[in-house]
Amino acid sequence: MHNSLALRIAGAAGDGIESAGEMVIKLCSRNGLHVFAFRGYQSVIRGGHVWYQIRISNEKLLHFGDMFDILITLNKDAIKEDIPWLKEGGIVIYDPNKFQIREEEKVKKFLEYKIPLQDIARKFSTLSVIQNVVAIGAFTYLINLPIEALDEQIKETFSDKSKEIIDMNLNAARAGYEYAKNNFARLAMSFDYSKKKRLTMSGNHALAFGAYRAGCKFYAAYPMTPASSILHWFAEHAPKGKMIVIQPEDEIAVINMTIGAALAGVRAMCGTSGGGFALMSEAVGLAAMTETPVVIVESQRGGPSTGLPTKTEQADVFQVLGAGQGDFPKVIIAPNSVKDCYYTAIEAFNIAERYQLPVIILLDLYLSERIETLDIEEIELDVKIDRGWIVKEGEIKDYKRYLITESGVSPRALPGTPGYMHVVASDEHDEKGNLVSDVLAGLPSMLKIRNAMMEKRMRKLEYVLKDLPPPKLYGPEQAEITIVSWGSTLYTVREAIEMLKQEGIVANALELKYLYPMHAKEIYEILSKAKRTMIVESNYTSQVGRLIRMFTGINIDNKMLRYDGEPITPLQVFEKAIEVVKK
User: Fold this and answer.
1) DSSP string covering 46-64, please?
2) Full strand arrangement of the beta sheet holding 244-246
3) Percent of the chain scored above 90 by pLDDT?
4) Per-residue pLDDT tens for 188-202?
5) Across the chain, what does the average pLDDT equal?
6) How confident is the model at residue 104, as a pLDDT?
7) Closest CA to 497 of 484, 489, 507, 487
8) How far is residue 276's CA from residue 278's CA, in Å, rounded to a whole number?
9) What are the beta bridge partners of residue 91?
């Protein structure tokens, strides 16, 4: 008996792979199981080869699975493309009337579950896409889930459709269920089908929801994979939250509108990917110079240029670190899970307003688009809101917007507050906002002002760092190898550590979330005591490894790097760690 399995549904874009995957995710999560899912796709509306991998278990999951147990394929491409990741002795469900699997194509042993998906689908509809529902019906039987559970999910999925469409899908699902019942034995699974319903969220949706709960009232974005679904979420929920959601003509307009909204006094956020962020760079400096609190989401994908628009990467670290010319304070946060995306959005707004600076949330496609189950109680709706030092009418007599303070944080008056008129410009300025550039730049009296204002702004980072929790070790303090992870690789490394444990190798992990400002002292203390070190990143040059060397002087020689666009898997980390330990 097993309490976990991984299913991959594969086919071409247009075959209903995504809708089938989402139906399985909800089917399982609404019946007491945990799910971790991820999909692979290309930039085409129809054609290509797409897949949705869904890992299912009684326990909380850390990854969508190195390999899978069952393959449902709607075309023959998957026999070549996906079979290599099918576990030995796994199951392939396919329609023998659409294609045959030749002996020379069987690169490993697997069971063939032949189901006439298309013929069954045609009994209920002329739409061939409904074959995916037939396949899900068969899968529902195999994992010993009552057909009534699938009926309920289909009714929910198609609740906005006509009764004819709902009945068509119900009949197709039941036909697939009955075919499997009459031809195959159920799998030896020990799934606990409780009635506990769990939330299913992607990283993007969790982050958007977190921003919503934090009081975000303005969101701007130009559609760009993999950040687009944040815009979609806000567009759907904006009316209820009385938000302004806008799609301007380009990313330059996006960030400048966001800065304008934040300057006007609302919590404002914008989102993009690497290419869009390149256009935003100058305005990041504008937010810092005007000390305007903005939150910017940058979800990384394969680069450079258009690169791999639908694939993941973690290669924009130095881009966001160096965004905008000159020295100025900014905060870069890399959340590590779907749940963490929710809380990071709230934290980002609090930091941005407390310290009056830009905060960049650094995601990647793997975290933005993966699906995880969460227990309802894991998402606290009553969140802490810290809007920082916003002055009220009559609070200060001689108002100086950029007053030099020990923390670098100055009193912030919202436009229109009586008695607090001030200048906001991109030029250097004195405490009141009067410009010290143009005809005054370089004069002896202005040199001191420039130095004082630069030092004031940069002091914020010292106080930000004190507010941010330092990184800690995951696992035992003493280990044969310490693995450094950041952002979306955290769960992957944790699963690899459990695999190493089974081999008798003690490993721990240094997990980084706050990339800038960096806790250099704490990182140095941990890594300098480590027996062996290894860093895991989805980029070619080990960007965070280089960042650690810049701030601590420690060079992490051993690296597990992946840059082909696919997420790093626990097995890859496990194998590299074994290699390092045995050196």
Assistant:
1) SEEEEEEEEEEESS--SSS
2) 244-246, 216-221, 267-272, 294-300, 358-364, 331-333, 514-516
3) 94
4) 999 999 989 999 999
5) 96
6) 87
7) 507
8) 5
9) 70, 111
What's CA 184's distance to the chain center, in Å? 38
| pLDDT tens-digit readout, 483-518 | 999 999 999 999 999 999 999 999 999 999 999 999
Q: Crossing angle of helices 570-581/490-502, nearest 10°?
A: 60
Residues in the chain: 583
CB-based contact 496:482 (threshold 8 Å): no
Helix/strand/coil for 16: coil
Short-list 293, 312, 295, 294, CA closest to 303: 312
Tell me how far apart the 2 most distant CA atoms of the chain are, in Å. Answer: 91
Q: How far apart are CA 419 and CA 147, in angstroms?
A: 68
- For residue 124 the two structure tokens come to 């209920």
What span, in angstroms and rounded, lies between the C-alpha atoms of 238 and 339?
Answer: 22
Pairing of β 4-13 and β 34-40 = unpaired
Our CA dihedral for 251, 256, 259, 260, rounded to 10 degrees, sits at -140
Q: Using alpha carbons, list the distances in angstroms from residue 445 to 294, 442, 449, 501, 573.
A: 32, 8, 7, 65, 58
Asked if residues 510 and 527 have their Cβ atoms less than 8 Å apart, the reply is yes
Q: In whole angstroms, what is the distance from residue 359 CA to residue 365 CA?
A: 19
| Helix 17-29 and helix 147-157, axial crossing angle in degrees, nearest 10 | 120
Rg (CA), the chain: 26
Q: Are 480 and 532 in contact (CB under 8 A)?
A: yes
Per DSSP, the residues of 166-217 read HHHHHHHHHHHHHHHHHH-PPP-B-----S---EEEEHHHHHHHHHHHTTEE
Whether the predicted pLDDT of 1 surpasses 80:
no
Residue 442 CA to residue 132 CA, distance in Å, equals 71
Angle at 95 between CA 92 and CA 96, to 5 degrees: 100
Contact 360, 316 (CB under 8 A): no
Tell me which residue of 189, 134, 162 sits closest to 20, measured CA to CA.
Answer: 134
Distance of CA 436 to the CA centre of its chain: 42
Instruction: Please tell me the distance from the alpha carbon of residue 453 to that of residue 445, in angstroms, as a whole number.
Output: 13
Task: Extract the tokens encoding 67.
Answer: 């390999």
CB 556 within 8 Å of CB 564: no
Q: CA dihedral defined by 525, 526, 532, 536, rounded to 10 degrees? A: -120
Residues 6+ apart with CB under 8 A from 387: 353
